[in-house]
Amino acid sequence: MKICVIGTGYVGLVGAAVFADMGNTVVGVDKDKAKIAKVTSGVMPIYELGLDEIVLRNVKNGNLRFTTSTPEGVSQSDVIFICVGTPQDDTGAADLTAVMAVAKEVGQNLNGYKIVVTKSTVPVGTNERVEQVIKENAQAGMDFDVVSNPEFLREGAAIEDMRNTNRTVVGTKSARALNMMRELYKGFNAPFVECDLRSAEMIKYASNALLATKISFINEIGQLCERAGANVQVVAEGVGLDKRIGRAFLNATGVGYGGSCFPKDVAALYKTSTDQAYDFKLLRSVMEVNELQKFNFMKKITKAMGENLSGCTIGVLGLAFKNDTDDIRESGAIKMIRMIRGYGAELRVYDPAAMENTKKVFGHDQIYYANDMYDAIKDVDALCIFTEWGNFKLLDLTKTKQLMKGNLIFDARNLLDQKAVESSGFVYIAVGKRTNGYTEDGDIVSTAILKNGR
Ligand code: UDX
Question: Looking at the whole model, is its pTM more than 0.90?
Fold first, then answer.
């Protein structure tokens, strides 16, 4: 099939690469000239394992090319994917400016029957507006259909997710469009959910909101576990074995969920509910809990180290919003660093992929960018782990003890082995469980006790 993918961000670039790899003829379109030049030469604008190899292979064999010209991409294709960003606006709603601008250009350049497929995450009713805008801008009598085909790609696992998706959701009112989508996805071995436009749009938001709800739920169970003397990791295992619930997305975290999707999509769904005069109370709490997690974790740090952190140095492992990505958008780690800096501490930070992005946000004021994880903990009073990178689990505790000045470890991801950390002479404070950083009454141990322990 001849496919045009408009927007070569995460979703567009991965989609274009995988569709091309399946033998389709794909043109990727982006207004950003520098980006197009980079991608064409095999330099990926995003960090995604294996993507460069697929792109280069398909550019070479002629299945994939890139252009900055929407008219060129649209006129030469039968299927047009809209994959541009829908960032959060000031009201919490999804900003549809880019989607509507693309719809207009697609309309202006229609030169025969095409299907226009929205992959961008858009609120219920958007595809009907897209249809309207295309119609208003197309020549009279030009035939087309719109389709909603949301993506469910996780950053860091996007290619795997695209190839082995759990389901393909296709919303459309046209039998002709549905057949074309079936043909396009016939190589994917996944259930095909065909539905109306609005249900397809809602499936995407409901999925992300439910996953975010799982995280906020386990984070609240974690709060309760700490107070009641239970262990949230054990609880998550026990609960997750129930097939109706599942173990995924039950990892409690002191920094909350982040990224370019969950925070924005939950807020947008909440905005949709208020627009429909419905107060989605559960969702409001999901967002509130997510923000509170960070303040509660900061409280652990100040309870242990005191309210005035000037003169203290804190080592930070993890800056990205999750492991296996360089993305720091809505990263809990970045928010934590902002708070810690506000309390006056100096920071030594390290992340395997997100250093450059973080430098752009903070510059060098109060922050040293370390060369590796051990460089980040040299002479620090305390160590904070904010992102669940696999490598951090391998931290050599004996070496860490020698390198650090203090003996405090705050593990916001429950990444380290509690027994090993405690028996190596550290005071360990994590998430949703009592550790040697707590008094018998369940309070965080005070600065005085810690100082004596040094
Ligand atoms: C998400 C959805 O998973 C994907 O389907 C959608 O299309 C885009 O949004 P992504 O943003 O890449 O993908 O991240 P994901 O892996 O879902 O993690 C989101 C956040 O939740 C991260 O900050 C992660 O650290 C956090 N998380 C995840 C937890 O805190 N606990 C968990 O148990 C799982």
Answer: yes
